[in-house]
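cache lookup: miss for this entity combination. No prior model stored, computing from scratch. Input as submitted by user K.M.:
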Amino acid sequence: MLRVIFSRIGSIAIVMLLVALMVFSLIHMAPGDPAAIIAGDNASSEQIASIRERLGLSDPLPLQFFRWSFAAIRGDLGVSIFSGVPVFGLIRERIEPTVSLTAITIIIALMIAVAAGVLAAANAGTWIDRAVMALSILGFSAPIFVVGYVLIYVFAIQLKWFPVQGYTPLGAGALDWLRHLVLPALSLGLAYVALIARITRTAMLDVLAEDYIRTAKAKGVAPHRVLIKHALRNAGIPIVTIVGIGVALLIGGVVITESVFNIPGVGRLVVDAISKRDYPIIQGVTLVFSAVYVLINLMVDLSYGLIDPRIGRQ
Amino acid sequence: MSTLNVGAASTIRRPRVGRFIKRNPMLVLGLLIFGSIVLSAIFAPWLTGDPYGMMPSRRLLPAGATYLLGTDPLGRDVFARTIYGARVSLTVGVCVAAVSVVIGLSLGLIAGYIRRTDAPLMRIMDALMSVPAVMLAIALVSLTQASVITVIVAITIPEIPRVVRLVRAVVLSVREQPFVQAAIAGGARTPKVIIRHIMPSTIAPLIVQATYICASAILIEAALSFLGAGTPPSIPTWGNMIASNRLYLAKAPWTIFGPGLELALTVLAINLIGDGLRDQLDPRLARRM
């Protein structure tokens, strides 16, 4: 098991190094002088020269890359062009709304999706199955911001059940916090639910065709027990895998959702940076989001041993 | 002779078409919706009014006979802009699907067949997949000038790894098949083995994958436009329209729901086509998914 963990961490280090190389080269791939891009449109040539000097932009590229990556490992993601504040601090300030939104979304989505997938598999071929599959195609097709505005229009503007926009920190009251997150989580989670429900159904259908399921049924185990204890547990690995891979979907969606619902999180930080051309922020957040994705999928890989003890013992 | 042939063909074809519709209702529905969206985008000048004209006197008119979806805050015809908006979305969707399939196919064949290249290529693909597609596209677009070409490139790059992984998986399973081994034993050169004997097996799954990529590219294009990292705001795209009308949600919801509905319908139609094709081309998978 320990060897598995080490080899996984090794391959992740390589992937993260490549990601860092990609994010680093973004600013060098752009047409024109990086110092001029950072300085902005109205900078004088002296200002551009001083930026080039300060950031060491005339050094050889490999040296710049190593300096940049070692700084990033220490948590130094550079300084925002627009506000002059360190990017790491900006991200830390805005992490709470983003983590809250993603956590609530994953919890709601998992509950709905696994239940729907199990229900569809248990009733394969019936109208329940077809309804779940039809809803999952709709979930894949509905864009987050369109769903978001429909939900706002119906449940916030017309029915006034939920606030239209904004965010309240958890510290200011859990109920208010939750009320602000229900609509964003539903819009963000729709595609995620569709994805997980589909995979759950497929994995369950595979497991339900196994001999030991027939044995369990034959010896008179209650149907819901067969479904949950015998089948769902053994369908766990594909489900957990897609939960991890789907996080990429969520992270991309967070940027859009926070923009629709005016949530002051990391996603909004990026969107505000687009119009100001604040590249260090875009670079820094891209790097952090990718690292989160890689770490979550490492945890998914390591959880296989917990779900299926046979894997750890090999 | 010729009249006889036409008569015979049409009597045979009619029940076949009927059976095809009956067996694939969702595929046919998807093709019908998608076809009408494509046709309306091509023939937009004959179907609707001017998508660019601003008239301050007709700001935020409700939906009616003259303006089917009303007008936006600048007095522009929302219906016309929605119909024209399909042009950018469809262009982006089709181009991204085509380019990513061509590049992904080449890389996937190389990675799957030439063992030395497998590990390095796949690590690069892993790295590309670790950056969320929307983030990578935002980063690429915001660094360069906003144009339809930039948007296509930015959306294509994160889609490539999906194609590479799919093609590589097919190559790895096909290369051990007797007919490929026979070709190698018969002295066929590597390029010929790859193109003549291995590539045909990748076509069916690639067609299905291309439709899903097209749908996802249209969604990402709309998201980029919506976030202000896409095509210039003057071009009518669904994302641009929703972004510029968002403040008027309570007063003029049609300015958002109109383009939003067509965007969702387009993506839905393409997904239905993808699912239908998958059922047709891969019956083994179809029974399970």
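stored under new cache key. Chain B touches chain A through 46 residues (CB under 8 Å).
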